[in-house]
Design a protein that fits this description.
The complex is a heterodimer of chains A (about 525) and B (about 200). Chain A is of the alpha/beta class and about 525 residues long. Chain A has two domains: about 290 residues, 3-Layer(aba) Sandwich (Rossmann fold); about 160 residues, Rossmann fold, CATH 3.40.50.261. Helix content of chain A is about 40%, strand content about 15%. Chain A contains 18 helices and 20 strands. In chain A, strand 18, helix 15 and strand 19 form a beta-alpha-beta unit. In chain A, helix 4 runs parallel beside helix 5 and helix 11 packs across helix 17. The longest helix of chain A has 22 residues. Chain B is an alpha+beta fold. Chain B has two domains: about 70 residues, ATP-grasp fold, A domain (Dna Ligase, domain 1), CATH 3.30.1490.20; about 110 residues, 2-Layer Sandwich (D-amino Acid Aminotransferase, Chain A, domain 1), CATH 3.30.470. In chain B, helix 2 crosses helix 4 and helix 6 packs across helix 8. The two termini of chain B are about 10 Å apart. Classes of the chains: A alpha/beta (about 525), B alpha+beta (about 200). Chains A and B meet through helix 8, helix 9, helix 10 and helix 18 of A and strand 5, strand 6, strand 7, helix 6 and strand 8 of B.
Chain lengths: ~525, ~200
């Protein structure tokens, strides 16, 4: 690793680039590879535009057989409402799904993005044809490359793409979604995997399988997505490029990333740090079980295993680490909320026990339970039945109806001592009807302070939660999951707050004396 | 010699000298002031404590001579390092490691013999900025103690940040696969590396 050094500065070790910055290392990224990637970076990222907003697409390997990937993808584009030319490439069939086929992508007047689903041995020709037709990007679904040890083929594909600055996603990936532009190259049929509506969360996943499951769940939960990318082997476009693109993508407000490992450590660090200056990044790193730590020869080696280094890297760039798949979107969706002014939590509930659980979680997450203002306390006392006690958690008890929620909410949303409001709503009670959803939406949409909803329960409850989530009000199935998300939200608010207060990383660095 | 490397990167190291004879050891000890420690420098030994290759808190010339002779019996081909023996208010560890994904990383933690038991440590990927170094320090569980809990003198944060960023530079420039500076003594007169280990 890292044998190539900058000839002008022999004192530099293998990890320092010409700009004095660390340039990444490891089994995937020799410094030579990083240098070549750097040269291509700006154009590759510009060309990613054609992945998400293609002017035209060609489905290479379009098939008449419904169970074939090339069939599903073509159908997605034809029936999904994509409003550009769609070409079907298949040299053996005259037409697919009513579209007259062409023999090669290069027969099309112009192809902006190639969607490649042909067997591995035809991928190189498919890419060359696409480049000839003017393609800026490609999504290669086909597997059979580095993941099965076929390194030579992967390297040839990489070279073809880099020589033409072709922003290639994959190979061995599951496709790309951009709901707003009706771009859908995900090869799982729509009737089997739900598609999320257009929203503000971008999701990038190294694994196609995990990505597909989460997108399906997110669609069901009513969480909107700006982009979904399964990036597979990351031969050309890796997580670092995608983060850089998403930093400048106006439709994306938060980024969620599932990874088994970074492809280019240095690019990831730089891209993630830049992204988190303006948008939150939630990361789930799989494969963190201890391995090799016992073999370490030093204390540092034992304390700085691969898992610890990943966690440190995430912390260093301001990324929020999720431990489970559920947490990925639990954390991501909370960033739709307006900013908080502190970490004092107010709890409103129609169930006493749930309020106590929430108070425990407040403490477990290192947050504070708000002390309601005296104005709030007397206003609450005036409106509540005599058998309740105004305090935090505020239990408005089991006979609370939507009107009582509305009055209590309006008092607590105005309380200057409450920074974040956790509204626990048990839909199971006889007194409460669906109109409480309107009450919550109205309170949240005033955006005076962040409000999250906790509703624990079965189908009836889930139905109401889904409606709330659809309105951009984050809901959670338990007090603990809600307050974990609130804690991450506040942690990131604090991190980003430093940028706004001028105590930013780059400001701090520029004030340091030059060495 | 590891200490030379540390000093090259302006990391303060407790007074130390190599001695080939008992007389040299005594002269060095008188120069730096008692008490001193003797350490056997031998390629045969991995863990000095386990091999009995350490003599701590020696308070007289006689003790130095006697311990010098004892160490030479363990490995006559080794040499002896004479080092000032000074207590610290607290002991830290600063380390480094070459990570296969992210390259060199720097570690700051609670040091001493219980380092791996307590596992109170913070890590950053190189290059570690002053900002990062400060975050590392403040994220330690033992930070309140270092910051002056119960009326003790707070640690010189600026000096510690300088050492961390120097170690970051060293990890980036030198071909080091693993590094331990342990303990790094926290004393009223500053921060001092008392022992180190460099694996290339």
């Amino acid at each position: 690793m890292g044998s190539k050094q900058n000839s002008k500065s022999p004192a530099r070790g293998p990890f320092v680039g010409s700009d004095g910055m660390f340039v990444g290392a490891g089994k995937y990224t020799s410094s030579a590879e990083s240098a070549s990637a750097k040269k291509h970076l700006p154009r590759l990222i510009r060309n990613l535009e054609a992945v998400f907003h293609p002017k035209s697409v060609a489905v290479i390997g379009a098939s008449r057989e419904p169970q074939k990937i090339g069939h599903v993808i073509l159908r997605n584009f034809l029936e999904g409402g994509f409003d550009g030319p769609v070409y079907a490439v298949n040299p053996h069939t005259p037409d697919v799904l009513g579209v007259e086929t062409i023999k090669h992508a290069s027969d099309a007047p112009s192809v902006d993005c190639a969607l490649v689903a042909v067997p591995e041995q035809f991928v190189e020709d498919a890419l060359r044809d696409s480049i000839q037709a003017g393609a800026r990007a490609a999504v290669v679904i086909t597997g059979g490359f580095a993941e099965v040890g076929n390194l030579q083929a992967e390297e040839r594909v990489r070279k073809i793409c880099l020589d033409a600055d072709l922003a290639m996603i994959g190979p061995n990936c599951m496709g790309v979604l951009n709901p707003a532009a009706r771009v859908d190259s995900v090869f799982l049929p729509i009737y089997k995997m739900g598609r999320p509506h257009a929203g503000s969360i971008a999701f990038i996943s190294q694994s196609g399988a995990v990505g597909g499951c989460i997108v399906d769940l997110a669609a069901r939960a009513g969480v909107g997505m700006s982009k979904f990318v399964s990036y597979g082997n990351a031969t050309v476009i890796n997580e670092g490029h995608l983060l850089r693109y998403l930093t400048h993508d106006d439709s994306t407000q938060a980024v969620v990333s599932y990874m088994e490992g970074v492809k280019d450590g240095r690019l990831f660090m730089d891209s993630a740090r830049t992204l988190t200056e303006s948008k939150p990044l939630v990361v789930l790193k799989a494969g963190k079980s201890k391995q090799g730590a016992a073999a370490a020869a030093s204390h540092t080696g034992s304390l700085a295993g691969a898992a610890e280094v990943y966690s440190a890297a995430f912390e260093q760039v301001g990324a929020l680490e999720a431990e489970t798949l559920e947490e990925l979107f639990d954390f991501a969706k909370i960033f739709a909320l307006p900013p908080a002014s502190g970490s004092r939590i107010g709890i409103l509930t129609n169930g006493g026990g749930n309020g106590v659980l929430a108070a425990d979680s407040v403490e477990a997450e290192g947050l504070q339970l708000a002390i309601f203002s005296s104005e709030s306390l007397s206003a609450l006392k005036a409106m509540l039945p005599a058998y309740t006690t105004p305090r935090n958690p505020m239990d408005i008890v089991g006979d609370a109806d939507a009107a009582r929620y509305e009055r209590a909410l309006s008092i607590l949303m105005k309380d200057p001592n409450v920074d974040v409001l956790v509204a626990i709503v048990l839909f199971q009670t006889a007194a409460l009807d669906s109109s409480v959803v309107n009450v919550l939406v109205k309170a949240a949409q005033a955006r005076t302070k962040p409000i999250v909803v906790v509703s624990t329960g079965g189908e009836y409850t889930e139905l109401h939660r889904r409606i709330l989530d659809g309105y951009g009000i984050p809901t959670y199935p338990s007090p603990s999951s809600a307050l974990r998300a609130v804690a991450k939200f506040l942690h990131y608010e604090e991190y980003r707050g430093r940028f706004h207060s001028g105590e930013s990383y780059s400001n701090y660095m520029s004030k340091q004396p030059k060495k | 010699m590891d200490f030379d490397l540390l000093e090259h990167y302006n990391i303060p190291v407790l007074a130390h000298a190599n001695a080939k004879t008992p007389a040299e050891a005594v002269r060095a000890a008188s120069r730096m002031g008692f008490p001193v420690a003797l350490k056997l420098v031998s390629s045969k030994i991995l863990h000095k404590t386990d091999a009995g290759a350490l003599s701590l808190d020696l308070r007289s010339a006689e003790q130095v001579e006697k311990e010098f002779a004892r160490l030479m019996k363990i490995d006559a081909s080794g040499s002896v390092l004479v080092q000032a023996f000074r207590p610290g208010r607290a002991e830290l560890i600063i380390g480094g490691r070459l990570d296969p994904q992210f390259g060199p990383v720097v570690l700051l933690g609670l040091g001493g013999v219980y380092t791996e038991v307590l596992r109170d440590a913070s890590l950053r990927i190189c290059p570690v900025s002053g900002w990062d170094a400060r975050e590392m320090l403040r994220s330690l569980k033992c930070y309140p103690i270092l910051a002056g809990a119960r009326g003790s003198k707070p640690i010189d944060e600026g000096a510690l940040i300088k050492i961390i960023t120097s170690v970051s530079k060293m990890m980036v420039r030198e071909k080091i696969s693993e590094l331990d500076i342990n303990p790094l003594l926290v004393r009223n007169d500053g921060l001092w590396a008392a022992d180190s280990r460099v694996i290339r």
